[in-house]
Amino acid sequence: MSPRPLIIDCDPGVDDAIALLLALASPDEFDLLGITTVAGNVPLALTTANARRICHLAQRSDVPVYAGCPRPLLRSLTTAEEIHGASGLQGANLPEPSLPPPAQHAVPWLIERLTTASAPVTLATLGPLTNLAVALIQCPAIAQGIDQVVIMGGALGPGNVTPAAEFNIYVDPHAAKVVVDAGLPLTMIGLDVTHQVVTTPARLADLENLGTPVGQAAAGLLRHYGQIDIDRHGLVAPPLHDPCVIAYLLRPDLFTGRPMQLTVETEGSICLGRTVASAPSQAAPANATILETADAAGFYALLTERLGKL
Ligand code: BDR
Ligand code: CA
Asked: Where is the signal peptide (predicted)?
């Protein structure tokens, strides 16, 4: 099998960084065409610099990083420095690569890449969906170049920004609605799944024991990450969200899910950004696969094995 063409849209962010490392460590499975960045966990200049830092760490500076939208479609930007640190990569001190990033904006690059793709491209989205929504609005024909979109976002249970909403959807609910309503083959990996994937001390030690710069950086990042969620959600250890998207593409057998009808709340004040999934019907057919379970031990074994290759 030839590697799957992949674009990762992200807002690094600690867990985005681990997701990027997992993808960068998997060249047999992924032909990583590019990384697009969006404002989310931290402002755009930082998410872009952080994506480039991670490529440099993985010795994959050949992967282009395109900066995208600096704010959500309608709302003002909400960031998450209390979780990811002021730099967005709390726990790692990585130099910024010296070469300038590509001048092209992420949205025209996405449109160009997806409308000229010789094989359909998989999109992994790890942040607010602003870039993909703008690309779909400007050029609906990009849908023909998309194989599937796998989203980290949403929650059927409690949210993590408000009782109702998960961060990526809450930050830009209007963009999420554009993407969900676009009729693309969509998989949603929400908090219900990612809260099953927790970084126990033993799993953290496995990463640290790799004894490599990547293993050290990953362990440093994860040592500080997600503590807030332990108290907030009564978890036994911090959850790891975004790498689930990459792990699902590598090993779908580690996850279960089912087709459902997905909608996004964009109007209510209490439930703004809520993802609502219901059993499909003739009137409202399934428009997304909603993942429900993850094999956390299998996930961390995969992550550790792959990061050991970098
Ligand atoms: C999501 O929000 C961000 O803070 C993380 O990077 C992840 O994408 C989890 O709700
Ligand atoms: Ca993210």
From this structure: none
| Cα–Cα distance, 244 to 185 (Å, whole number) | 18
280 Cα distance to chain centroid: 26
Cβ-proximal residues to 77 (8 Å cutoff; 6+ apart), any chain: 39, 40, 43, 70, 71, 171
C-alpha–C-alpha distance, residues 96 and 119, integer Å: 33
Residues tagged active-site = 241
Q: Is the pLDDT of residue 277 over 80?
A: yes
Task: Please say whether the beta carbons of 42 and 15 come within 8 A.
Answer: no
Task: Work out the average pLDDT over 210-230.
Answer: 91
List the residue whose alpha carbon is closest to atom 2 of ligand 1: 167
Class of domain 4-307: alpha beta
Rounded distance from Cα 82 to ligand 2 centre (Å): 14
- Residues at CB less than 6 angstroms from ligand 1: 13, 15-16, 41, 80, 83, 126-127, 152, 160, 166-168, 241-242
What residues form DSSP beta bridges with 239?
A: 198
Asked if residues 98 and 136 have their Cβ atoms less than 8 Å apart, the reply is no
Token pair, residue 278, equals 């219901």
Instruction: Report the distance separating Cα 261 and Cα 247, nearest Å.
Output: 24
Nearest to 51 by CA among 23, 73, 81: 23
Residue boundaries of the structural domains of the chain: 4-307
Shortest-distance Cα residue to atom 10 of ligand 1: 167
Closest CA to 289 of 170, 150, 146: 150
| Helix axes 296-307 and 201-208, enclosed angle (nearest 10) | 10
**What CA–CA distance (Å, rounded) separates 268 from 75?**
14
Give 235's pLDDT tier (boundaries 50, 70, 90): confident
Predicted confidence (pLDDT) per residue in 294-303, tens digit? 999 999 999 9
